[in-house]
Amino acid sequence: QVQVVESGGGLVQPGGSLRLSCVFSGSRFSSNAMGWYRQAPGKQREFVAVISIGGGTNVADSVKGRFTMSRDNAKNTVFLQMNSLKPDDTAVYYCNTVPWGDWGQGTQVTVSP
């Protein structure tokens, strides 16, 4: 059974940075594309970033130039480096395989003065 555990969220001021981590417990991590998603209060869950098996990435237009996704296959972990954070980035952030498997608990990111 595949499980993902997100961490690294917190409260940060506008303009600040956070680095989220997601540990994948299951076989064949290196054979899965992985994605980051977020859900703000009262809104649908939305795509943030994706990384392919080969390490190529794509990010949503709303975070382009500010967020970077990476992976460490030796540690079964993906990361989301978030810089120049804005209040609109406030959400619960989730990672998942692509295509989706079971969702984890997510990690809360709050951007506020």
What attributes does this structure have?
113 residues, mainly beta, 6-stranded mixed β-sheet, 4-stranded antiparallel β-sheet, 50% strand, globular
Would you kindly provide a written description of the structure presented here, covering whatever features stand out?
There is one protein chain. The protein is mainly β. Helix content is 0%, strand content 50%. It contains no helices and ten strands. The chain has strands at 3-7, 10-12, 18-25, 33-39, 46-51, 57-59, 67-72, 77-82, 91-98, 107-111. The strands form two sheets. It has a six-stranded mixed sheet with strand order 2-10-9-4-5-6, with no helix packed on it. A hairpin with a 6-residue loop joins β4 and β5. It starts with a strand and ends with a strand. The model has no long low-confidence stretch (mean pLDDT 95).
How is this structure best summarized?
With 113 residues, this protein is mainly β.
User: Span between N and C termini?
Assistant: 40 Å
What's the β-strand tally?
10
- Mean model confidence by pLDDT: 95
Tell me the number of helical segments per DSSP (H or I, 4 or more residues long).
0
Poorly predicted runs are none
Question: Could you say which overall geometry the principal axes of the C-alpha atoms support?
Answer: globular
Name the beta content range: over 45%
Helical content, roughly?
A: under 10%
Structural class call reads: mainly beta
Q: What is the CA-based Rg, rounded?
A: 13 Å
Arrangement of strands in the largest sheet: 2-10-9-4-5-6
The helix/strand order is EEEEEEEEEE
Largest sheet: 6 strands, mixed
